[in-house]
Amino acid sequence: MANEEDDPVIQEIDVYLAKSLAEKLYLFQVELEMAIDTLNPNYCRSKGEQIALNVDGACADETSTYSSKLMDKQTFSSSQTTSNTSRYAAALYRQGELHLTPLHGILQLRPSFSYLDKADAKHREREAANEGDSSQDEAEEDVKQITVRFSRPESEQARQRRVQSYEFLQKKHAEEPWVHLHYYSLRDSRSEHERQYLLCQGSNGVENTELVKSPSDYLMMLMPPSQEEEKDKPVAPSNVLSMAQLRTLPLADQIKILMKNVKVMPFANLMSLLGPSIDSVAVLRGIQKVAMLVQGNWVVKSDILYPKDSSSPHSGVPAEVLCRGRDFVMWKFTQSRWVVRKEVATVTKLCAEDVKDFLEHMAVVRINRGWEFVLPPDGEFIKKHPDVVQRQHMLWAGVQAKLEKVYNLVNETMPKKLDGQSGPAGLVSGDQRVQVAKSRAQQNSMLLAQELQQRKEQVWASGALPGVRIKEEPLSEEGEEEEEGEPMDTAPSGDHHSRLTNGLPAGRVAGGDSFNGLPSPGCASTPVAQELRTFVEATFQRQFVLTLSELKRLFNLHLASLPPGHTLFSGISDRMLQDTVLAAGCKQILVPFPPQTAASPDEQKVFALWESGDISDQHRQVLLEIFSKNYRVRRNMIQSRLTQECGEDLSKQEVDKVLKDCCVSYGGMWYLKGTVQS
Q: Per the record, what is one GO cellular component (predicted)?
């Protein structure tokens, strides 16, 4: 209301549409100052005569450009300014009425210097004539044989190319006949007569029925959509989008398009492109759906660049394999600023062109060094958003576990610190890594042996528990070497219910007694222990058998789904996770893996839920007892053992349920879940 009061309506004007000259009215845009006045003292008469002589020659006829032998006129050539003039009109205001007449065309008149081309042509003709006279005798002596060839019939495509060529258009333009027009000045009576046609002839509204419409229809008539101009505009490539068009899309689509085109971007740059009005929290939430954090910078996810059902343009490899290979390159850059292309090709088994595409997305090549990550580490983002960094770290741990299983990678026990690293510390060969791993394994073995001996002394000092079976290997952290040894069984042989794989009765573990001289985490009342216990119990209720490697992967995915600041982000060690599994009523199954197995230490640690409270508990316990002595078993052996232990003939459905809960079939044999090695 305030704006309307500040801008009051001063006058209302009636608008009329005049159509008498609608198909005849043209607008000529011309600079009138270009007219030539030969009587002006500033006009150079000798120069005008020279130009006329060069253009027309000494003799004057009807075809001469300048009949007065003096450059006394200037030619203007017209060019069409727009292909659609329906939105333009000429307006005439008279006696409080505005009369509009649509324009049929708009032409720009520009000076034409074709007379200079004509003068050059005349000059070349004279030079050719002079040379022809001097060399006429020599030309008669040099008689050469020529071959006559008949032109082929012109094809339709050739004719279209010729018609669209510049030479053909110029020739057609030159052949167009001139139309002589008469110019009438502003004050001439003929001009006054023609100007009356710009006024609407009938003021009673008979001729203006088109204006008796709704405001929206009136505006559409006055400013119709320019369909022809849209067709004439060049079509932009499919991957090009202006910032104005981009900001009309939802925020999630804006982030996806930007990351797909840029591929690697710091968070600060992304915020500057999206605009200052965008909430950074919403951007953080959206960027994690389409990108992964590498050295504090965001790199677009592989499945965004290689969607499902696509393939490599170089080798035809499916998108799934390409995503796996690119994820390996991204993961390598989370470990170091430098990556060697040959190493990537050797591990991923992809062609050199595909590997080069991966590296060019996020790195630059350095001669005799390898490929360096394209952006420096963004330490500011890492310090400002620790929750996001922790969540991304958990996601990368899941990706690493998947890559290790697919590519049979060896866990690197030496983490690399990227903060403050300005250049490469040197490329480490595979042999050097093996030597470092061996030395660390020997050191860890000595420390673990001492720790194990201390725990044994504590247990025996407090009095050995009857029926306790102690396994001669400590529960180690990820990447540590474990001592190999046979379990020392101090329990009498008997039914499988009294055989204790973990070295503890199930009741004592659940009750929270000491475990190998250490307090059980199951009795801890801290929020972290309770949350971890809840996750472990819920996970084993869904999957009865899990390896430590698979459990860690599921736990990392669980952490990634939690909100920032959750208690579990305080840090969970492998030891704490294993102790919680044992305290939750699970047991470790000592599967006898073959000596040549490629399984990692975490994959060889198998845990199973001993009692779930359903009728199949006894059947699963018999099955787990079988796999504590056998790496793989045939189905008939499992069924006969179940019948022998349970004392009844089990149906096929009951056996299938037990096998489905705990095992997988491969090559006609049955394995515990997570232990099969293809």
A: RNA polymerase III complex
